[in-house]
Amino acid sequence: MASFSWVRWDRLMRVSHLYTGLFLAPWMTLYAISALCLNHSDLLRNPPQWKATSETNFKVGKAFPRVSDEQADTILEHLGLSGPRRITQDDAGQMVIYRLCATGNYRITWQRQTAHLTVERQLPFSVHTFINTLHFQHRYDQPYFAHQVWAVIVDLTAVSTVIWVISGVYLWARRPGRWRGGLCLIAGTALFVYLAVLLCR
User: Among candidates 47, 56, 86, which has minimal Cα distance to 69?
Assistant: First the structure.
């Protein structure tokens, strides 16, 4: 009976280790590559610059909303740029909307007094910026399908990483000749603790 129980645990650990890894392979590859990009950013980065792409006037009518979030959405809809955004400035003089896009963010500045709209975009496009934008895509604050699903995947990736560690240690512990794995586990843990202590000084 005990051996049957171990067999079931072995199967559960192997299945969870294997299939979560296969499902999340694109995300884990992305995070691995973007981590390298971040670590070597001075070699790879081509800093994008804001370049004006259009200028227009946007006069408000009686139906124009009074709430800032709704105003921002109305302006983006007017420009054909509806999508995830953040308001980075909102005062009596102007509103600045940061429209998020993995291929190059937009910055929309609306001068309230003159009703003037300026649209700028981060150019040129670079793979480095694209990968890092996807790397830092997170949270549930954007009410769009892709962003909501991506946030769920981020949670799944975090949970799955813990599962991989647990299942990996479990599968190692069930193998004969465990001393090599034990040395790797002890060495990795000791190095982690040592560096963490140094970084806290």
Answer: 86
pTM of the model: 0.77
**pLDDT tens for residues 21-34?**
899 999 999 999 98
Strand order in the sheet with 106-111: 49-57, 116-123, 106-111, 94-99, 85-90
Would you tell me how many other CB atoms lie within 10 Å of the CB of residue 37?
Answer: 19
Q: CA 81 from chain center: how many Å?
A: 21
User: Residue 112 burial by CB count (10 A; 0-12/13-18/19+): exposed, middle or buried?
Assistant: middle
User: Residue ranges per domain, the chain?
Assistant: 2-43+151-199, 47-125
Quickly count: other Cβ atoms within 10 Å of residue 28's Cβ.
16
